[in-house]
Amino acid sequence: MVYQYLNGENWRHIYIVGDLHGCRYLLDEQLVARHFDPQQDLIVAVGDLIDRGPESLACLALIDEPWFRCVRGNHEEMALNALNSGDRMLWELNGGEWFYRLRGVELVTAKHALLRCHQMPLILHIHLEDRTVVVAHADYPAAHYAWGQEIDVQQVVWSRERIDRLQSGEGESISGADAFYFGHTPLQKVLHAFNQHYIDTGAVFGNSLTLEQIQ
Predict the structure, then answer these.
(1) Rounded to the nearest 10 degrees, how much is the dihedral formed by the CA atoms of 68, 175, 132, 31?
(2) Please, which residues have CB within 8 angstroms of residue 78's CB and are 6 or more apart in sequence?
(3) pLDDT (0 to 100) of residue 1
(4) Active-site amino acid positions
(5) Which CATH superfamily is domain 3-213 in?
(6) What is the pTM of this model?
(7) What secondary structure does DSSP assign to 4-27, as a single string?
(8) Residue limits of the Serine/threonine specific protein phosphatases domain (predicted)?
(9) Using an 8 Å Cβ cutoff, are 97 and 151 in contact?
């Protein structure tokens, strides 16, 4: 699945969270602090639920929660490629070794959850009352956003070209939507530039986890 549509009318509050990377406890702390109501509210994640942190399995369990949505990140892509091809080197080098330490029920649970990542969209299109918000992992690799438009999958989950330009003082808005939220590149603080918001603040490296409310 490339695009998935969400209508904001279905929730009271909507939050977007940066890369979790196995840090489920940090999300849980923020949900308590925000008085998050799973019956009325929604969390949207920018991908990279797994690897490097201590709770990859607990983060994968979020996929089954009705109050949670997530786009596919490059770490989910690496996991799927490793499971499909048997070549585990790239994933292990980037934090996937936790999976190969699992045994028994945990291993089966993790494998089933990871295979479900195939069903994650690459792009989440969120229709709010007064604006359209687009969520992807690394980039929306086009100057103009359009629902269903063909895009380069590799760039959606891996590209840092746009953020590199922004950090060097260049860049421009992406037309076709009001706001774009990305993760992928760990930063000391959130980067807001034009209509783009980069919210991976490196929680797994000891920084804070960013949770931004959009509704």
Answers:
(1) 40
(2) 90, 91, 94, 96
(3) 85
(4) 75
(5) Metallo-dependent phosphatases (3.60.21.10)
(6) 0.97
(7) EEEEGGG-S-EEEE---TT-HHHH
(8) 71-76
(9) no
